[in-house]
Design brief:
Layout (H helix, E strand, L loop, with lengths): L1 E5 L7 H13 L3 E5 L10 H13 L8 H8 L2 E5 L9 H10 L6 E3 L5 E3 L5 E7 L10 H10 L5 E7 L9 H13 L2
Parallel strand pairs: 1-2, 1-3, 3-6, 6-7
Antiparallel strand pairs: 4-5
Helix pairs in contact: 1-6
């Protein structure tokens, strides 16, 4: 199963357009989690205490673990996240905060090293930026967490940049990114 995590908020999102072209190239059906339409919230003292108690009991049937189980069971993961304010939309961080559950997506070895439990062989990170793209605070974070903590085999960055530079033809840049994606 391919899991599409869509953190785009605009109905005409260029990032989503590129991600959907990737999904077409990958073929098959996929499950989409449109983060803007979820009720995901940052963990609070109360929700964190509840989560920790359930993890300690080994009780993972609670609905609060549904996104984590869905993420862990995906064969392929596609994330669409526009580059905003040198990062990705905050709802994506909240999603990761809720997905990062010890016992579902990761465990720790006896010497404290993380051991990923996710099934995904590949994660694609699709983004666009109005100016030059800097991967350090967006893709860099996702790649590090996915490979080093979740056990995802490989991460790939797909991006279009400089879309809002004066004189740039944003549609042509997006179209060229999609064309390259389809021809590889």
């Amino acid at each position: 199963m391919t899991l599409y995590i869509n953190s785009c908020v605009r109905s005409t999102s260029r990032t989503d357009r590129i991600a959907r072209a990737l999904l077409d190239k990958l073929g098959g059906e996929y499950v989409e989690v449109k983060l803007e339409e979820t009720d995901l919230r940052p963990l609070t003292e109360e929700s964190l205490a509840r989560r920790d108690a359930l993890i300690a009991e080994g009780t993972y049937s609670d609905a609060m673990f549904d996104y984590s189980k869905q993420f862990a069971s995906a064969d392929t993961i596609v994330i669409s996240a526009p580059f905003w304010d040198l990062s990705f939309p905050s709802k994506l961080k909240v999603y990761f905060e809720n997905v990062y559950v010890t016992g579902i997506v990761t465990k720790f070895s006896s010497d404290g090293r993380p051991v990923g439990l996710c099934k995904a062989k590949k994660l694609y990170y699709v983004t666009t930026s109005g100016g030059p793209y800097v991967a350090d605070f967006s893709y860099g974070y996702v790649k590090s967490v996915a490979e080093n903590f979740f056990g995802v085999g490989e991460c790939e960055l797909i991006y279009a940049e400089n879309l809002d530079i004066i004189g740039a033809d944003a549609e042509a840049i997006v179209d060229e990114t999609i064309k390259k994606l389809r021809n590889r």
